[in-house]
Design goal:
194 residues, alpha/beta, Oxidized Rhodanese, domain 1, 2 domains, 5-stranded parallel β-sheet, two-stranded antiparallel sheet, 6 helices, 7 strands, globular
């Protein structure tokens, strides 16, 4: 009988430890990710802050409400890379789906740009906003993407006041709306991100 009680105590202790570890892991994953002082220079995929100082963080309902104002939609999602084992005798035709009307700047969320890339980025944003630094601009990518956070931060640091960050990105959009195939922005395509 004492063996049975001992076994039950060990099982109960193991379950209690497992529950505590699960609860601790949940707490850690929900921990606040602090905003970096400047642009994020770490891996582009991972937990992101819930805030972007100087910008408005929006969800799908907020974006839907903003759409009648014709915001500039900046998709900074990466271009799909050709798999190394892709057959050489087959044509590589990747597609990129995004929010209708978005301008796609693949890789424009990188922390560092060459001077020409940065100039191209800001010149195109100025054209897209028609020189109005208060015009609503929405930066997005995929969930857990620092690239869209960096793009928003870069715009805020440049003095744009209508910046909106949509961390749910294209995945959130597609839960309620159709996405369309788009090509890289014409100016950005000639200055691809390194």
């Amino acid at each position: 009988m004492s063996d049975l009680i001992g076994a039950l105590v060990r099982v109960a202790a193991s379950l209690a430890i497992a529950l505590l570890m699960t609860a601790a892991g949940t707490q850690l994953s929900r921990a606040e990710v602090p905003e970096p002082e400047g642009l994020w220079t770490g891996p582009m995929r991972g937990e992101t802050p819930k805030t972007l100082t100087g910008a408005v963080v929006i969800d799908l309902a907020d974006l839907e409400a903003l759409m009648p104002k014709n915001p500039v939609l900046l998709d900074v999602g990466p271009a799909e890379k050709k798999p190394e084992d892709f057959p050489r005798d087959r044509l590589w035709l990747p597609t990129h789906r995004s929010i209708p009307g978005a301008a796609w700047f693949p890789g424009a969320g990188a922390a560092s740009f060459e001077a020409a890339q940065e100039e191209t980025f800001f010149r195109r944003v100025e054209e897209l906003t028609e020189g109005d630094s208060s015009k609503p601009i929405v930066t997005f990518c995929l969930p857990g993407c620092w690239g869209s956070w960096n793009a928003g931060k870069r715009l805020v640091m440049k003095g744009y006041t209508g910046v909106h960050w949509f961390p749910g990105g294209i995945n959130s959009w597609q839960e309620a709306h159709e996405a369309v195939e788009i090509k890289p922005d014409r100016a950005w395509e000639s200055e691809p991100a390194k």
